Every structure is written in C-alpha cells, then in structure tokens.
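Subject: for your reference before the review

Hello V.,

The reviewers asked for a structural picture of the protein, and I figured it would be easier to keep everything in one thread rather than splitting it across files. Below is the amino acid sequence we used in the manuscript, unchanged from the supplementary table.
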Amino acid sequence: MNSRILHVLPPEILLVITQELETDKDLLVLATTCQQFNYLSLQTFFLKHKFDPHSKSVHLQSLDGSLYKLPGLAISLSLWGTSLEHLYYDFGYVYSPRRLISGMRLLTQYVSKLSTVDCATLRLTAPPLMDSAEWTEASITLLDTILEKFCKNLHITTSQPKSSQSFQQYAEATLDPWTTSLTTKKSNLLRSIRARQSGKATQHLKVCSIQTFPPFLRPFYLQLLRSNALALTDLYFKYIFRGGTDWATLITNIRLPSLKRFTVEFGVISREALVKFLSKHPHITSFKYHHIKYQPLTKNAPRLKNGIFDHLEKLITSPEHILNFFPSMDRMPALITVVIVIEEHIPDFSAVEGALRCLALCVNRIELSLQIVRTGLGFEAWLEAIARQGPGLSSNTRPERSLHCVERLIIDNGNWGFTENLLARLPSWMGLFPALRHLTLRDGGPGFRLISLDEKCASLPFVAKLKLSSKQLLSFSVLGKSEWSHDFTSHP
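And here is what came back from the structure prediction:
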C-alpha cells in the first residue's frame, strides 16, 4: 500500500481495516508492513485476545492459550523501552520441539526490547532433544537476555522427575559430572557463555531459585551464581535428585558474601559439600532444609560445628536433621523462629518428640510451628499414640513440659484439618507448654466440611477449656478460609 495513502486516511478507517481481518496470522503479517499498521493491527490483535501488552505483569503459559500472544509481543514496536515488574513464562506442557524453540526465540525477541525486568519466573521443558545445541542455545540466550534487563529476582523450573520418584532410585542413578568440561573447555556452549559473561558481572540478581538440576543448565547456573556473587541475598534449591556430584561441584566453587537466606529441600546431595558451603557463609539468617538424603551415604557423621549459625534467626527443617545434623540449639544465639516439618507414615512420633527435647536448649523466646505435610499422619494420630503410652499427656516426662522457650505456637495439620476428636484433645496438650502465650491453628483441611474451624473454635466451651488448661495464654487465633482470633486479656 502506498505510504502517502496511509497519511491521508484517518486512523479510524485504518482501524476498521484491521478489524476486518479474521485470522491472527493476517493481523500479524499486516503489523509488519509499517509502523502505523504495527500499532493498529496489534491493538486489534490484543483486544481480540483480551490481553494488555502494557501491563506491568505479563503471564504466558501453555495451558490457558496465552502463548499465542507471543508473536504479537515479539513484533510490537510500542513496547520498546517499557518495563516489567514480573514476567511469568510456562512452556512446561508443550511437547512439540519446534514450538518449544520457536517460543523461546519469540520470548527472547520480546524481552530484548524491554528496558527492565524486575522478576522472572520461568518453567522450561527438558525434552528428548535437550542435549541438542539448538535447544540449549535458545534457553541460554533467553536467560542471558532476561539477566541483561537488570533482573533482581529469577526463578527457574524445568520439567524433571520430582518427589514422585523414590529417594533411593535417585541415589542409585548414574551421575555425569561436568567438572571436566569446566577445566578443559571442551564445550563450545560453555565457551560462549564465558564470552558473554566474562568481565561483566551483572551484580543485579538478588534472589535466585533453582528447581530441578538438568544437565543442559548446570554450566549456566555456575556462571550465573559466580557473576552475581556480590549481590545475591537469597538462594533456593529444590528437587535436586539427579546430578548430585555436579551440584556439589557448583556449591563448592561459589562464595556469596551477602547471602542471608538459603534453602535446600527435596534432594539427594553431598553432605560434605553442603557443610563446606555453610562454613563459608556464617551470616545466613534463614535456612530451610528438609526431605534430604545424602550421596554418598554418611554413617555416624558429626553434627555441624559450633559457630556456623551464630546469626541464624529462622530454621525450617525436619526432626531427623535437628537430631543429627544441626549444632545444639544453645549454639544458635539469634534463633527466634523454628518450623518443624513432620512427615510420619507410621504412628511413631519418637523423632518429633526427640526434636522437641532438643529445642529446650534454645536461649531465646521462640515461635514454634509444627507443620504436617500432606503425605504424613496428622496430629490426631500423634495424640492417639501418646494416649496408648500409659500416662499419656499427664506424664511428667513429656518433652513439651521442658519447652520454656516456646512463647508462640502454630499448629498446621496439613490436609487432615481439625476434627472434633482432635479439638477435644487439644486443650490438654496445649496445657503442657509452660510458657505458651499465643496459639494459632492453621486450617488447611478439606474444603467440603460443613462446619469450618473458626466456627468450631468460636464456641465458648472450647475457648473456656483452652484457657483453663493454659492459664498463661494471652491470645488464640485461627487462620484458614477466614481469620478468627480471641484475646484473653480483653475477654477472659
């Protein structure tokens, strides 16, 4: 079309022309003809899909069809220099290799036009062709482009087997370390990564979350953490079942002087490598560590040395690690929050009770959360097991009686919810905590119950029983579908 005609025709007429086009393909083709039609065609394109390309948060995922908007984002001229607060991209349910690579490249083209991307959450696929240079290069190029946009918060997930597989199966799996390629520089991809990142540490990334550890991204992760070493304050690892030797190589070759929060959950890892990493990072204030097995297996390994957790304020872990891994609680002078993740498949809660005995050495008043995971037995099974042990809750040897440090207690019964039987036993159990001032029940049980937990707990008989058993209690609250609380100071 003659460009002079476009300048004569009013925008309203040009917009009508774009609205007469029936297919996305026609709109996208017209958008590439000139700047004016780029704006008008894509305006029609995004209106048709009920999508705001100028939103501060862009959500693209395969399940809701939003990935079909990617071509429009990639060729839009109006998006040059704009900024995103959050980019969410999920290609995890697309199984066409060509579509995967095409989607990567379109997203890279879109991100390259932006000025900044504060936070990016990506779910990538590791398909059968994951070892091909084309797929790997497309993935790395996308990640590098995002990082160049001053990204501060990066979360990467890849489609890999997770907790549905057994720990033992992964512990026995063949590992393929890439240490050789790091030292000999045999990998062309690794050389290209070095070329892009050498000499230009970005130092913008503060939060990095890595979920699963596929081979095609392992060299990139090492370069990523090294180049942002001075800025990183939060580092998370989850589902590290394969590549434990490579993971050990990674964490022993990085040092993050600003690291404050560290997570390792669900994995088969090297205990020795983890201990070395923790020894180099004594200023961690929050550590989440549970559902971990060690490879190689360690027998009679000593606890962590004193002094590693002098600054630790929050600990989220499982009973066996309190019993066998962490230093004595009196060697954590800053600790004020403890979350015990409980997953017992048989009615034997001896490890949980042993962990409670360890907590008695805490030097501060703490907030304690007892959290049942969805696959474990609930508190009702625990209290029934206690009742079968002779004196039951009336025993003077119960570990709760020694917890003078616990001032706040949060009870999370996972998917089990709070039955009438459990609530009937609860006041007597709470009465064992000698210094308990604040109690919270977190209701995450089935949503089909006719009576919610807050309605049950609001009854005067239950509140009266709770106060009678725990005379020092100041407040009681319920967190669930709705929030409810009772202040004993103003309503005795």
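For the response letter, the relevant points are probably these. The mean pLDDT is 83. Residues 97-113 form the longest helix (17 residues).

Happy to draft the paragraph if you're swamped.

O.
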